[in-house]
Write a structure and sequence with these properties.
This protein is of the alpha+beta class. The protein has two helices and three strands; from the N terminus they run E-H-E-H-E.
């Protein structure tokens, strides 16, 4: 787990998709958010593709095209309040 400075307020941390411990952290974050039953949403964005596929990259929401858990070097975790403006 790595926390990078100077990010959006919704940013929580960056995780390694190949690390079992980091995937357990992600599971804990998701369980905590889902049990609160509030308007909070967890967003996982794949970053730094391992293999660049021709014609593929990021979609308009900033996600890797394809399976982000297999093709990303890191996952950025964001927590958003859906009703906060």
């Amino acid at each position: 787990m790595e926390v990078k400075p100077n990010r959006t307020p919704a940013y929580v941390c960056s995780l390694d998709p190949k690390s079992f411990v980091d995937m357990e952290i992600l599971k804990t974050i998701r369980l905590t958010i889902s049990s609160s039953r509030s308007a909070v949403q967890v967003s996982v964005k794949g970053r730094e593709p391992i293999q660049k596929i021709a014609g593929c990259g990021y979609n308009r929401w900033g996600d890797l095209v394809g399976n982000k858990y297999d093709n990303a070097k890191r996952l950025d975790i964001y927590i958003h309040n859906r009703y906060c403006k």
